[in-house]
Amino acid sequence: MIPAKSSNYDLPDSYDNIEQTLITADQILSDAVENAKTLFHSPTVSSIEDSKIVSRVMVLREFNLKDRFMRFHTDYRSPKIKQYKKNSTASVLGYDPILKVQIKLQGTIESHYHNSVTRNAWDGSTNRSKKCYSVRGGSSFKIDNPNKYDLKDGNIEDGYMNFAVLIFTFNSLEFLHLKSSGHRRALHTWNDNYASQWLVP
Ligand SMILES: Cc1cc2nc3c(=O)[nH]c(=O)nc-3n(C[C@H](O)[C@H](O)[C@H](O)COP(=O)(O)O)c2cc1C
Question: Measuring from each residue's beta carbon to the nearest atom of ligand 1, which residues come in under 6 Å?
């Protein structure tokens, strides 16, 4: 049986060239922005709240390897906005069982509100996405009856006042490919200089 494809391109069958692992990670994450079939479209974003680790799934809206950032959208009223201001350290993790690839990134999150970054992102959003930001109360607000908070038709542009953009800038990207004949794990880091290193999987 031919396995179901979750990507719109062909990936190498195995990795013996470390540069190829970064090229593949770039292909997977760039494709994942528009391609909801790959699980990399909705990676897990973890950060630190006081002494706790908190994780949430978010839709990947942009991936840029050259400038090393990812873009996510969220509700400005969400408590994570304050949390990222207090501690910007974050990690993004994704795995797609069809691609058999895990990608783990480490970096920091900066939130944007009512500036050119949010304006461009809002203008590039679909009406379906924009509608979520008109919800009453805002993300994480404590409620008694969820029915009262279902999304209603109204002026979707009003949601812009609740719209925030999260820019995750990364300085490390770890690629893991699982294959029975030999797993491959590669770490790419950007500190003073770029470096890459194979790791025991
Ligand atoms: C498939 C999926 C996609 C999601 N996309 C987003 C998103 O793009 N932005 C966002 O803020 N929350 C998104 N969420 C909801 C978050 O995972 C989370 O529940 C919400 O942001 C509130 O979490 P918090 O209390 O950790 O901030 C998504 C959840 C799922 C299951």
Answer: 42, 54, 56-59, 72-74, 78, 80, 139-140
